[in-house]
Amino acid sequence: MESRASMAPTPGALPYYVAFSQLLGLTVVAMTGAWLGLYRGGIAWESALQFNVHPLCMVIGLVFLQGDALLVYRVFRNEAKRTTKVLHGLLHVFAFIIALVGLVAVFDYHRKNGYADLYSLHSWCGILVFVLYFLQWLVGFSFFLFPGASFSLRSRYRPQHVFFGATIFLLSVGTALLGLKEALLFKLGTKYSTFEPEGVLANILGLLLAGFGVVVLYVLTRAEWKRPPQAEEQALSMDFKTLTEGDSPGSQ
């Protein structure tokens, strides 16, 4: 009874928004695969279809999995904080690895076919997002999972970590939209304006990408949906502060 009483209640609308975000995210992944299969010949590594690995991996990694990693602290409200941290970090690791495969695929494809690299706005934004994402994970691991950072340092950095996490996610969605538009213009050219079926499907995919990003950011920015600190976590935090800074709970 006591453990149930200490559990934080889940806001009534939160599960519906989270479920809606997952429906949008899975639809985006499925539609990306359908677009590549129906109009781009499918996916293969050792062929001209290697390029198609890139958009699929980026959508799965830097959009869907990154969005889910950000939602971890809204979904798992009563689990141990350490468990939630590890799940948050692991999802980001999986997202990074999948995105790395997509990045290798496009550079390898360009090298094999003699195409130029890093000349478009999409490629510049993509490299920026990838580097920022890696740095965000590295610094987050150092501060929140590695036991070296002090309590006050973690507290000061946490708002920046949250802000840059949401910003990088937003940049990832925007970069995916840029890449989608670029791919359509390269292949369809002036036919894009004649409502070609591929263009219509890709436009719908773009709207779903934007919708997923908006729903995830909405869930993240609702202050009343934040994961509330549990009593034992607050006690552990005070113990950690005492160990790392020599302060006692009563000295504040």
TrEMBL record:
- Cofactor(s) this protein cannot do without: heme b
Q: How does it sit in the membrane?
A: Multi-pass membrane protein
What name does UniProt use for this protein?
A: Transmembrane ascorbate-dependent reductase CYB561
Keywords in alphabetical order, please.
Cytoplasmic vesicle, Electron transport, Heme, Iron, Membrane, Metal-binding, Translocase, Transmembrane, Transmembrane helix, Transport
Q: Which residues form the Cytochrome b561 domain?
A: 20-221
Q: Mind telling me which Gene3D superfamilies this protein's record contains?
A: 1.20.120.1770
Organism this protein belongs to: Ceratotherium simum simum
InterPro entries named among the record's database cross-references: CYB561/CYBRD1-like, Cyt_b561/ferric_Rdtase_TM
What are the TM regions of this chain, as residue ranges? 12-38, 58-76, 88-107, 127-149, 161-180, 200-220
A Pfam family recorded for this sequence: Cytochrom_B561
Cell location: Cytoplasmic vesicle, Secretory vesicle, Chromaffin granule membrane
Which reaction does this chain catalyze?
monodehydro-L-ascorbate radical(out) + L-ascorbate(in) = monodehydro-L-ascorbate radical(in) + L-ascorbate(out)
Q: Does the keyword Metal-binding apply?
A: yes
Electron transport found in the keyword field: yes
